[in-house]
Amino acid sequence: MTSHIMPTYNRLPVTFERGEGAWLWDENNNRYLDALSGIAVCSLGHAHPAVHKAICQQSEKLLHTSNVYKIANQERLADKLAEKSGMDNVFFCNSGAEANEAAIKLARKYGHEKGVENPAIIVMEKSFHGRTLATLSATGNSKIQQGFAPLVEGFVRVPYNDINAISQAINNNKNIVAVLVEPIQGEGGVNIPAADYLNKIRSLCDQHELLMMLDEIQTGVGRTGKFLAFQHNNILPDVCTLAKALGNGVPIGACLARGKAAQLLTAGNHGSTFGGNPLACSAALAVLATLDEENLVELAQQKGQAISEGFIKHLQGNKHIVDIRHKGLMIGIELDSPCAELVNSALQQHLLINVTNETTIRLLPPLIIDEQQIKLLVDTLSTLITEYTEQTAQTTLS
Ligand SMILES: Cc1ncc(COP(=O)(O)O)c(C=O)c1O
Question: Quick one: which of 199, 295, 320, 364 has the fewest CB in 10 Å?
Answer without folding.
Answer: 295
